[in-house]
Every structure is written in C-alpha cells, then in structure tokens.
Design goal:
Elements (H helix, E strand, L loop, with lengths): L17 H80 L3
C-alpha cells in the first residue's frame, strides 16, 4: 500500500498516552481536593450548628414537659382542694343553718 492506508482507521493523535493521563488525573485531583476539603469543613460547621439547634430545642422540650407535669400535678392538687373546700362549706352551712 503506497499511500500508507492499510485499511484500518487512523488513530487520533489527540489521545494522551498513559503517562499523560496520570498527570491529568493527578492535576484534577489536586484541583478538586481543596474544594472537597472546603465542602467538608462547611458541611461539618452546618452539622454542628444544626446539632446545637437540636440540642437547644430538646432542652426546651424537656423544660416544657417538666412544666406540663408540674401543671398537671397542680391541677390535681387544686381539684382536691376544691373538693375539700366544698365539703367544708357544706359542713359549715349545715352547722349554721341546719340545711345542706
């Protein structure tokens, strides 16, 4: 074949050789690494801030639950006091008037 055409398609000359691919990959990794590190730091800060907010919310919930329990206890005590006061009023009225 005089013109050099052996019937096979010509290989593109723009394909890098294996060493060049390694260099390109290394550069890409070197370029991407600081970006990834900044994203990790940013994500860590965001997670820490979210955790702090959740902890604060949890503390608020615990305070509210304790307050609710105290209010329920106070309500029961007030109901008992009310019942006792009614009984005492009946007793006093009976003593004073003889009428319930």
């Amino acid at each position: 074949n005089i013109d050099g055409d052996d019937g096979m398609a010509a290989q593109p000359t723009s394909l890098p050789i294996t060493g060049d691919i390694d260099v390109v990959v290394a550069r890409l990794v070197d370029d991407a690494l600081p970006l990834l590190q900044r994203r990790v730091v940013q994500s860590t800060r965001t997670l820490n801030a979210t955790k702090a907010e959740m902890d604060e919310t949890q503390q608020g919930v615990e305070v509210a639950q304790n307050l609710l329990q105290q209010l329920e206890s106070d309500k029961i005590e007030a109901e008992h006091d009310t019942k006792a006061a009614r009984e005492r009023c009946k007793s006093v009225r009976l003593e004073l008037t003889g009428v319930e």
